[in-house]
TrEMBL record:
GO terms for biological process: proteolysis. Residues 1-22 form the signal peptide. CDD domains: Asparaginase_2, GAT1_cyanophycinase. The record marks 503-504 as: Cleavage. It comes from Sphingopyxis macrogoltabida (Sphingomonas macrogoltabidus). Belongs to the peptidase S51 family. This is Isoaspartyl peptidase.
Length: 642
């Protein structure tokens, strides 16, 4: 009697009964639809393969590929959302199969139904429909259905999936367990947060091992969230295992994967692609907050491409792009990038003749092209900065190599340094007198000696031992620099050319593998005495590079750059204070200026965006990125980068 009174009352109040009182509602029965005849022989041989579909209109040719893999026999479709319309499409519209049988699940208990399991075991091909992928996780993970899917693929039978039916096939998957679908901004804002529900231990397909998949890719702007999926999926992944990769498929595309792992695109639109995301730079993400990934490689798989799974290698890709994730957004960054400088000074347009300005820009342009030629062929950043600086050392307009300034004794004493951001190896030389390209000698110190810096007579001897090109001291002499020394001797002033007050050349680069490097070369200061050495060859003062942070080459009043550890300071501000590269470069120059120093620096970040910082001076400078043309600047009001 009490129960009879409570039911209407609770219903009127909109309240539910407690489990002890309420009777559990029975799940909706599974749906079953059949098109064609189930007991006819399979006409052709059955072979393995995976058809990974992006969720849009199905490409007929890709479906015929899948049906052919199934011997044009019996296809079983499993779903948790859609009904008989798939069977109508497969059997009546595409055709060429003996039967299409559909099972629509409405509860986990149905994953042990003997009839369903028997039909799945006998299927020539299994198709996983789209819908709510969280239902697939709840209904099928850890059940005989999941076991049969694994066994089906392992036995060399074909399997296809579209939308959610693809998204649940990787080693790890986004489960959408919060009954929603996370979007890229939300996922990037907190990749390790609870809304990014990454699941595992579901299906175990060898060709998708180490892969996270996603669908409706380009159309729903899902690249950012795939970055976040990979970041969370790799938390705790053993270091000896390769990085996971992401595989996104556009709505108009279907990726047909052969048993050997080679996959080709079928598409209903010319720009229907699959996207392969390299997860190596998305490992090691810790803590809550926005994803910070300065360089993520993404490769496009188009109709003329071949992708090899599970490695993710792509033959003839339609594109290779790099992206940076920062502050909840992603932006495309260049494949490689190079920036150079040729010294700083009080450079105003009235101080340079048009002819000399043109000559300076031509020299910068040539150096940029030399470094770019290395990078565009896939060369290392280390080789590119050396190539650019070598051109500037040979150009008498710049204070490095030929055209270096004279010491008080009337000698050319040359300094140079180079640093590899990948390994943190570095080499430097100071006071050398006979090596045509001091930057090559610095590189030899790094590569072929146990030391970082060699100086004066010892460095000259090492250069000869290394077989580097030697030059008579007269090679470095120019009449203009000699006249500057004579003027210095007459007036005893530290520098007499205000347009080249701080004469140094340098380069910073990012290569296609994401590695950074920096190089600097200089003749020092006119009238320098007592074996003076400035900041250029001192690692951390005038030259520094570290992958993932920045590469820096400086020019200026070296004593102040040394005291501020200027080059290393830029990188530390990025790494430890979270400053943007531009802010870090500007703040460092301000710190140098605060103690009395003047000059400038160039810096390159892992996103390929250079920064140029000068304190109220001009600076001979330039930049070039993949696919672009050289850009140069001289005067303080010229802009090269944001």
């Amino acid at each position: 009697m009490v129960r009879g009174l409570l039911l209407p009352l609770l219903a009127a109040l909109g309240l539910a009964l407690s489990p002890a009182v309420a009777k559990e509602a029975k799940p909706k029965p599974y749906e079953h639809y059949v098109f064609g005849k189930l007991n006819t022989p399979t006409p052709g041989p059955v072979s393995g393969g995976l058809l990974l579909m992006g969720g849009g209109d199905r490409n007929i040719d890709s479906m015929k590929w899948f049906f052919g893999k199934a011997g044009n026999g019996h296809i079983v479709v499993i779903s948790a959302s859609y009904g008989k319309e798939i069977g109508e499409e497969f059997f009546d519209e595409v055709g060429g199969i003996q039967s299409a049988e559909i099972f629509v699940f409405h509860d986990r208990s149905q994953s042990t139904n003997r009839k369903i399991l028997d039909r799945l075991r006998k299927a020539d091909g299994i198709f996983i429909a789209g819908g709510d992928q969280s239902r697939y996780v709840r209904y099928w993970r850890g059940t005989p259905v999941a076991e049969i899917l694994d066994a089906h693929v392992a036995a060399g039978k074909p399997l296809a999936g579209t939308s959610a039916g693809l998204a649940m096939q990787g080693e790890k998957l986004y489960g959408a367990m919060d009954d929603g679908s996370i979007k890229s901004p939300e996922a990037l804002a907190d990749p390790l947060g609870p809304a990014n529900t990454i699941e595992g231990d579901f299906v175990h397909f060898a060709l998708l091992k180490g892969i996270v998949t996603d669908t409706h890719f380009k159309e729903r702007d899902r690249l950012g969230r795939l970055f976040a999926f990979l970041a969370k999926a790799q938390v705790g992944r053993p270091a000896d295992q390769p990085a996971m990769i992401g595989l996104g498929v556009d709505e108009s595309a279907a990726l047909a994967v052969e048993p050997d792992g080679s996959g080709r695109i079928y598409a209903t639109a010319p720009d229907g692609y699959a996207w392969v995301v390299d997860g190596s730079t998305l490992r090691g993400v810790t803590g809550r907050g926005p994803l910070d990934a300065p360089r993520v490689k993404v490769v496009g798989v188009g109709p003329g491409s071949v992708v090899h799974l599970p490695s993710g290698r792509v033959d003839n890709p339609v594109f290779e792009r790099h992206y940076a994730a920062r502050a909840g957004e992603i932006v495309e960054v260049p494949r490689w990038s190079l920036a150079i400088h040729g010294g700083a000074g009080v450079i105003e347009r009235k101080t340079l003749s048009p002819e000399k300005e043109q000559a300076y820009r031509a020299g910068l342009d040539a150096a940029l092209r030399a470094g770019a030629a290395v990078l565009d062929k896939g060369g290392a950043a280390l080789d590119a900065v050396a190539a650019a600086v070598r051109l500037l050392e040979d150009n008498p307009l710049f204070n490095a190599g030929r055209g270096a300034v004279f010491t008080a004794e009337g000698r050319n004493e040359l300094d140079a340094a180079i640093m590899d951001g990948k390994t943190l190896k570095a080499g430097a030389v100071a006071g050398v007198t006979r090596t045509r390209h001091p930057i090559d000698l610095a590189r030899a110190v790094m590569d072929n000696s146990p030391h970082v810096m060699l100086a004066r007579d010892g460095a000259d001897r090492f250069s000869v031992e290394q077989g580097l090109e030697q030059a008579d001291p007269a090679w470095f002499r120019t009449e203009e620099r000699w006249q500057q020394l004579l003027a210095w001797r007459a007036k005893q002033q530290a520098a007499v050319d205000p347009t080249h007050l701080f004469g140094t050349v340098g380069a910073v680069a990012l290569d296609a593998d994401g590695h950074l490097a920096a190089a600097t070369s200089t003749g020092g200061m006119t009238g320098k005495r007592w074996g003076r050495i400035g900041d250029s060859p001192i690692i951390g003062a005038g030259t520094y590079a570290k992958d993932g942070q920045c590469a820096v080459s400086a020019t200026g009043s070296g004593e102040y750059f040394i005291r501020e550890s200027a080059a290393r300071q830029v990188c530390d501000r990025v790494a430890w204070k979270g400053e943007s590269l531009k802010d870090a470069a500007d703040d460092t120059i301000m710190a140098v200026g605060a103690i009395g120093g003047d000059g400038g620096l160039i810096a390159m970040g892992p996103d390929g965006r250079p920064a140029f910082a000068i304190n109220d001076l001009g600076m001979y400078r330039g930049q070039i990125t993949a696919g672009g043309v050289p850009a140069t600047a001289i005067f303080a009001d010229e802009k090269l980068a944001d």
